Request: fold
Amino acid sequence: GELADPPDFRPRRSGEPVIRRIERMACDEAVAQVRRARTQGNAKRLFVPLSRATLSDPVSVDQIVAVLDANRAINDHIAFVLLQRDWSVLTDNEQAAVSAMARKGVSFSIADLASLRLDFADLSARGVTSVRVDAKRFVERPETLTDFHSSDIAAYTRRFEIDLMATGVSSEQQVLSLIEDGVGVATGRHIADLAPLQTGGESADTALPKPVQRARN
Reply:
């Protein structure tokens, strides 16, 4: 009856077939949830985990692309989340897989950033619409992430239609600092506990990143 985070169930070898099965199931479930929510007039954007285990397997890529091709009307509500350590070492074939998915209308979110010293124009061209940084590090040691002032970097990424998202928010002070720095979206147990996604009613976005401002309520 408890929720498990990826480290709890993922095998250490990311190339094992079980990862590809989990990610394919997550993609199928996301499509079903978005279609259901859209039918109810409550469309939500879902973030779906993806790794090189899937991107490196032609069969898995073809299966996901086929699902996306059959659901083009809702693909703009789906974003695949890749860790930066995966994104930064994609092979040519894996980059081609990312491009094939982006052409179907989905976007990408890069998580667990070690640095914000990135080519955001290139990321935007490749379908990235958000990047994620640790809230504690961004608030307390922003100079380790970027040469910009912390109050300027969110506005800078938005020039390229990329949202800066803070993760792991753990205190009210972090919330206030993020608001002051113009970071509009955040996740963390201080804002809301993890919960199963629902597609109807007030709790339809319980599994989604939250606008930072909500934490003030």
Q: What stands out?
A: The CA atoms of residues 1 and 24 lie 23 Å apart. The first strand starts at residue 46 and ends at 49.
